[in-house]
Amino acid sequence: MIDLEPLWLTAKLALVTTSILLVVALPLCYWLAYSKFKFKVVVEAIISLPLVLPPSVLGFYLLIAFSPENGFGKFLEEHFNLRLVFSFQGLIIASVLYSLPFMINPILSGLKNLPISLQEASFTLGKSKFITLVKILLPNIKASLLTGIVMTFAHTIGEFGVVLMIGGSIPKETKVVSIAIYDEVQSMNYHNANVYAGILLAFTFSILLAVHLINNKFKQKSLF
Amino acid sequence: MNVLNGVITQIQSHEGISLVKAKTTKDIVFTSIVLDTSETAEYLKEGNDIKIIFKETEVIISKDAELNISVQNQIPCIIQSIKTGKLLSQVNLLFGETIIKSIITSNACKQLQLKENDKVMALIKTNEISLSPND
Amino acid sequence: MIQFYAYKMLQTSKGTQPLNVSFNIEKGQFVSLYGNSGAGKTTILRILAGLTNAEKLLIEVDGEVWDSSDKKHHLSIQKRSIGFVFQDFALFPNLTVKENLEFALQKNDNKKIVEELLELMELESLQQSKPQNLSGGQKQRVALARAIVRQPKILLLDEPLSAVDDEMRFKLQDYILKVHKHYKLTTILVSHHLPELYKLSDKVIVIDKGKILKEGKPNIVFSEQKISSKFKLTGEIIEIIKSDIIYVVNVLAGNNIVKVVATEDEINNLKVGQKVLVASKAFNPMIQVIE
Q: Which one of A20, A46, C82, C129 is most buried, counting C-beta atoms within 10 A?
């Protein structure tokens, strides 16, 4: 009988990460899309880093940063009694950073593809930036939002390197499905590994399929 | 395009249309009718320098000097040169030091037996002459 | 009512060029900005709306300062009493026609104005449609109606008629005149369509390369040109053909090719590709009804 705990943990991690990223990404994307800040490209490059960086590199730096031996980790432990290494909270922070581009990129390109006049028209009609974002911009990039949410969710489910570096494999705390598979294989439990892997494959495939179907529908009643 | 310099000597306007008389060198007076008045076109003032403009193809040539004809602009000229083409001919006319070019059919040229140094009249209707401020 | 001064370096296809204009507009006037593309007309509208900034600015509307670069004062776009009709109409694709208009309502506005405008612009039957299902002319009417929901002091129109055919153009001009009068607006229109300017405007400001060339009543501004001839077109020489001792010059003006006879001396100054003015006396052309 396989342990269901890693499945729940994975789902929880993906859900929390996606929610946090959505909240973070909206203002960040708005800023990236419309600000005239000179060094915006630098910020964009940093956000895209996880796309190309080996997850173990990111995990390694986070491990160093969060370690209670070092400045930042020590500060957190002393002042907030918070230890981020080998904990679920640490995993969330790592996931948020690691999945950042998967949420940012679709939303950002969605915003950039909207004619600037939509926003300007809203301003000339006396509406604030916030109202414009919520009532005009976001409803017109539904497909991008959906892509961002699903890609982030799916990507968080699939992450391995970062989790391994910073979370290890503590049951109920950091042992997500991808780690569980690795553990099962290590201990030659191919059957269990197979079940985990099968569930993951079926699940991620079905949500990606759903996204493409929905996006196609959006495109058919094309906005412009 | 024939372009001559002139000075406005008289303007007679009525309901947006003006009959403008302009004097060129050798005291030849040209008359032009335009859809403007001194209110709608600033340059239309007596004493102003203007350009008198008309197309070569609108210049009629007559060998008779005394004509009982409605054409208002009648300028005595001497034929300076003729360039004959198959259908059309260009006749360069001289009055004073000014050249007026006329393009007429080669048939007309033959019929009138035009040749260099002939004395002729160049005739231009008032409504064929455009004016332009000279600046 | 509007006092406008702006200085701004513009990036154009031919390098940088300063926009340096100053003009006054009376309350209730219909003013057109006329000029070649790249002359800075749209920039002027955008500066007035607060959508574009400039190095030096002084804008006063009804005694209220909207922009003053000296005093570092800039009234936000939202607070300016303007209606802006964009060249691409900028209708919100997620909202229906009616919702587009309702979006423009402010907190305590009476909703009646939306109904009134739908009726005035003859949009009632379309009110539940989404913008993507409308024709160009319909979109234009919706954009115009939406710009007026707030009952602004100033209506700004950025070449709103460039995307529609001639017949629609005439109709839409009537709608524009209708709202201009009905809501006692002060209207500024960017256009390079001469007949439109004649029909609509009380005053034309001709802009060229960032500067005001002329301003005044349209018939005065446009009649006072280099030559008294009234039958004029500008176009580009596309071909010069020798015929006997003369030449026939083909000039493309708009979508028409006109042919002009020229002499050999004149041809020396003409080249294919040159921009030219073709003029004839108003007495010569004949006029016939087509159809």
A: C82
Residue ranges of domains in chain C:
2-223, 231-280
Place of tokens 């300062």: C65
Contact (CB<8Å) A126/C78:
yes
Q: Which fold has domain A5-34+54-218?
A: MetI-like fold (1.10.3720)
How confident is the model over C136-175, as pLDDT tens digits? 889 999 999 999 999 999 999 998 877 677 778 888 889 9
Do C226 and B132 count as a contact with CB atoms less than 8 A apart? Answer: yes
Angle of helix A5-34 relative to helix A40-52, nearest 10 degrees? 150
Interface-testing mutation among A114, A119, A125, with chain C (most C C-beta atoms within 10 A): A125
pLDDT tens, N- to C-terminus, chain A (224 residues):
678 888 999 999 999 999 999 999 999 999 999 988 888 889 999 999 988 988 889 888 888 888 888 878 788 878 887 778 888 888 999 999 999 999 999 999 999 999 999 999 999 999 999 999 999 999 999 989 998 999 899 889 988 888 888 888 888 888 888 888 998 999 998 999 999 999 999 988 998 888 888 878 776 554 44
Beta-carbon pairs below 8 A across chains A and C: 61
- How far is the C-alpha of B129 from the C-alpha of B110, rounded, in Å? 27
Q: Does B81 touch chain C (CB under 8 A)?
A: no
Instruction: Calculate ∠ Cα C196-C202-C206, nearest 5°.
Output: 70
pLDDT value at position A221?
52
Q: Would you call C229 and B41 a contact, using CB atoms and an 8 Å cutoff?
A: no
Residues of C with Cβ-Cβ distance to B55 under 8 angstroms: 261
Q: How far is C157 from chain B (nearest CA, A)?
A: 29
Pick the CATH number of C231-280 from 2.40.50.100, 3.40.50.2300, 3.90.320.10, 3.40.50.1000: 2.40.50.100
User: Which chains are within 8 Å of B by 3+ CB pairs?
Assistant: C
Given this model, what pLDDT does residue A223 score?
A: 46
Provide the angle, in degrees to the nearest 10, between the axes of the packed helices A190-220 and A5-34. Answer: 30
- Give C166 to chain B, closest Cα distance, Å: 27
Residue B73 pairs with which residues in a beta bridge? B124
Residue C226 has pLDDT above 80, yes or no: no
Chains A and B touch (3+ CB pairs under 8 A): no
Cα–Cα distance for residue pair B4/A213, rounded to 1 Å: 77
Q: Which residue of C has its CA nearest to B41?
A: C224
Tell me the shortest Cα–Cα distance from C99 to chain A, in angstroms.
11
DSSP A141-202: GHHHHHHHHHHHHHHHHH--HHHHHHHTT-TTTT--HHHHHHHHHHTT-HHHHHHHHHHHHH
Return the minimum-mean-pLDDT range out of B58-72, C62-76, C263-277. C263-277
Q: What is the pLDDT of residue C180?
A: 94
Residue in A148, A154, A149, A142 with CA at minimum distance from that of residue A206: A154
Would you identify the CATH topology of the domain C2-223?
Rossmann fold (3.40.50)
Asked if the ipTM is above 0.85, the reply is no
Predicted pLDDT of residue A219: 66
Q: Which of B8, B11, B52, B55 to mutate to test binding with chain C, by most C CBs within 10 Å of its CB?
A: B55
User: Could you say which of C84, C91, C106 has the minimum Cβ distance to residue A124?
Assistant: C84
Q: How many CB pairs under 8 A join B and C?
A: 59
Q: Residues of chain B whose pLDDT is less than 70?
A: 135
Tell me if chain C has a CB within 8 Å of the CB of B36.
yes
